[in-house]
Recover the amino acids of this structure.
């Protein structure tokens, strides 16, 4: 078992490698839990204190004004505004008009992209499962999702919402709906006994069930390896938000329209 890292991030237990690259028995061993019994109640309390509750930070909500300000208050936009002012100042109407159009288009497209990204992040709060079924001390019972910690053995059935990022250890005809994360309209069938290369995109890590995804078919069991804000699902959403806030000009907007999907969906890698 890997020693706990005193400086580990909240919600993330240190593994020797990413969970999707390791066989499930190795993940269970490194997380210091047991396949059947799960964690002890005392260990679960200690990990809850160390890694924090399994929840997203409550934000201030979506602010239209703040989003609009962020679209204007960045270095490249200020340069474009200055260039526009100079162009009109020297009566270069065509050049000034073109720069104005770029500025307006940049603001409009950037605003709607970031607004959509923040609404998606906000929706994760409502999609989060209120409870999860875990095994502790050899007994299986429901606990509030905020109390689920890395190392918990979680059971999933049709209709459940996945309470945290989970490395599957058992699966029977198990499929999840990840449309919010990947944009895929069809459920994804999972494979608990597969491992994947380190650089496999999150959307192709079929041995992982992601937080806030919904079980559409079958049943499964897995071990939690990441909770709260450290989850890959929220990392993907944060990536989209960053793509929305770090744009420099209209020329850089177009490639970033589908940042979240491209982050999560990549060419499928072969099983290792």
């Amino acid at each position: 078992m890997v020693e706990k890292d005193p400086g580990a991030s909240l919600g993330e237990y240190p593994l020797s490698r990413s969970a999707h690259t390791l066989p499930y028995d190795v993940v269970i061993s490194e997380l210091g839990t047991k396949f059947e019994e799960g964690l002890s109640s005392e260990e679960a309390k200690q990990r809850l204190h160390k890694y924090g509750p399994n929840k997203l930070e409550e934000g201030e909500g979506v602010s239209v004004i703040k989003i609009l300000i962020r679209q204007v208050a960045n270095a490249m936009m200020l340069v474009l505004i200055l260039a526009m002012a100079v162009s009109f100042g020297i009566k270069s109407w065509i050049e000034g008009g073109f720069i104005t159009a770029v500025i307006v288009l940049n603001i409009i497209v950037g605003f709607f992209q970031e607004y959509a990204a923040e609404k998606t992040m906000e929706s994760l709060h409502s999609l989060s499962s209120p409870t999860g079924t875990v095994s502790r001390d050899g007994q299986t019972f429901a606990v509030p999702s905020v109390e689920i910690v890395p190392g918990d053995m979680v059971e999933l059935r049709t209709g459940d919402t996945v309470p945290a990022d989970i490395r599957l250890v058992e699966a029977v005809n198990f499929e999840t709906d990840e449309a919010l994360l990947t944009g895929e309209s069809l459920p994804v069938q999972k494979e608990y006994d597969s491992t994947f290369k380190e650089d496999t995109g999150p959307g192709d890590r079929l041995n992982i069930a992601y937080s806030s995804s919904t079980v559409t078919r079958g049943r499964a069991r897995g071990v939690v390896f990441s909770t709260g804000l450290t989850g890959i699902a929220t990392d993907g959403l944060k990536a989209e938000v960053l793509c929305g806030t770090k744009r420099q000009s209209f020329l850089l907007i177009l490639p970033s329209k589908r940042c979240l999907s491209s982050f999560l969906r990549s060419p499928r890698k072969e099983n290792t």
